[in-house]
Amino acid sequence: MSENILVAVAWPYANSLIHVGNLTGSYLPADIFARYQRLAGNKVIMVSGSDAHGTPVAVQADAEGATPLEVYQRYHAGFLELFLQLGLTYDLFTSTHTQNHFKVSQAIFLALHKNGYLYRESQKQWYSPTQNRFLPDRFVEGTCYICNYPDARGDQCDGCGSLLDANHLINPRSKIDGSTPELRETEHFYLDLGKLQPQIVDFLREREGYWRPNVLRQSLGQILANNLHGRAITRDLDWGIPAPIENWTGKCLYVWFEAVIGYLSAAIEWAQIMGDPTSWYDWWYKPQARSYYFIGKDNIPFHAIIWPAQLVGAGEWFGKIFENREGTQLTLPYDVPSNEFMNLEGRKISGSRNWAVWGQDFLSRYDPDPLRFYLTANMPEAKDTDWDWEDFLRRNNDELVATWGNLANRVLSFAYRHWQGVVPAPGELRPADQEILTTIENGFETVGDQLNRVRLRAALTEVMRLATEANRYIDQAAPWFEIKNDKEAAATTIYTALRVIDSLKVLFSPFIPFSSERLHTYLGYTRPLFGKQFIETQQDDLGEHTTLRYQPTDASGRWEASQLNPGQTLLEPAPLFKKLDESIVAEERARLGKPQQ
Ligand SMILES: [Zn+2]
Question: How confident is the model over 570-580, as a mean pLDDT?
Fold first, then answer.
């Protein structure tokens, strides 16, 4: 039975470039998962966009003498290019700076208000006398008042994972210029998380059986230890979404409040673009629809506590306010498979020190599949991992090239040469032929099960193990000897081996789609495994915004074993991957920590 699956991916801030830690933390796992679910026949939408608002963008614009709009648009354009090259199949990658997102966010705000989950209060907020502005929590650092971690952010402590009240930070300092801020009075709307706590605890308890331990610890564990408290959802800032309250100016929705609403607004925008404006109901108003949030561990409380609280609190009023429709409860997250961090050569990745491997820079020298492969094999699913250039080289040469690429190339070249470019007709299959076909066929269940549970590393390890089995089969059958005295036996071996690589191609395809797609054409198929990605401009009253899109037009891939027919025409094959020279390790290490070019 086909299921509705929402793949909700972290929204990158439109003021910094994307590095391999970001990719393996959320963007790549989301794509692997989405590709698998599509192959398995489910109805998938994968959505995200650029987080355009907030002080980080405004501050960067000030520093450059540009407008926040210009800064956001420049980074946004870079994201689209990178995600296109890397094959991240967003059904819609949009931005928070769209009329639709403004409207959806304001409707969520008003629905929470209507349901009595907002209150208004004057508060003291850190104000920077040197900058003449209120500082958002994220721009104040200091010592955590819970665990004494010295570099706690105003909104959250990376030492103990707690959500913080910025005003209680010890020894506060402005992140912008290091100066000491002072507390000044200002009025804001608050989300009454305390009132929503019982529903959130119920929501989390229902998910205890299958959520990752770290995600439960930073959500349910934190709530039970510290309880939830009201949290300001408006700010004194002019770059963002105006709070929808009459005669109350100069206030915007706080960026953490509105950016998570993007998961909903992007699905709505996607439905509008597709010309079927209510089709998003299938993912957002059906309780049985499954939504997965792919995020890094620094974002757990916002996705496992606050976003569910916004959805619960908006309740049925959202539909009434947004489109004057009898509303339904919006669908709550099914899973938040958050990843840990990836370090680089033993040290924490740091953008400002250029201790990073940047996505676009990497792709100027290497192909996307080796990157996707290495980042999956090394994905920080359960604990922090490390990018190591020597390890990258080894995995590329020993696993991708030697175990998988050479197997596919050997079999295809041999078939192409000896059977006039068509799939040979086999004789009766022997026990060894049957056995390898069964082994590979069973992989669709075991690998599929791992993928469905978002255990992507384990899934890839299993596919690699199957490729090793296939190598063993072909080495034992040795068709290059068989062909000398028994061409029918060789035909049976090669037919079996072609079916095996045809199946392995599908099993590998969520991880390394570009090479799988090429292999698919070598095997003589004319329709692609997956659909098409493209960049498209959208128009609304706020102006133009560019989007990255995916359409499954003509996609023919299915999560099932090969049924390759004898006589199918093969194309002349070429190697799927490049063996890398050992010298790249020293070259790449020499780039680290140097100023960017
Ligand atoms: Zn702390």
Answer: 98
Distance 226 CA to ligand 1 centre (A): 12
What is the structure's pLDDT at 597? 56
CA 151 / ligand 1 centre spacing (Å): 9
- Distance from residue 162's CA to the centre of ligand 1 (Å): 6
**Which H helix or E strand runs over 199?**
helix 193-205
The closest of 118, 94, 151 to 270, measured between CA atoms, is 94
- Determine the pLDDT at residue 411: 97
Per-residue pLDDT of 138-154, as tens digits, reads: 789 999 999 999 999 99
Q: Mean pLDDT, to the nearest integer, of 168-172?
A: 95
**CA-to-CA distance for 360 and 83, rounded, in angstroms?**
9
CA distances from 51 to 34, 80, 176, 232 (A): 21, 13, 20, 19
pTM: 0.93
Taking the C-alpha atoms of residue 125 and residue 155, their distance in angstroms, rounded to an integer, is 12
Q: Any bridge partners for residue 343, and if so which?
A: 386
Q: Which helix (H) or strand (E) holds 403?
A: none
pLDDT for position 310 = 98
The enclosing H or E element of 43 equals strand 43-50
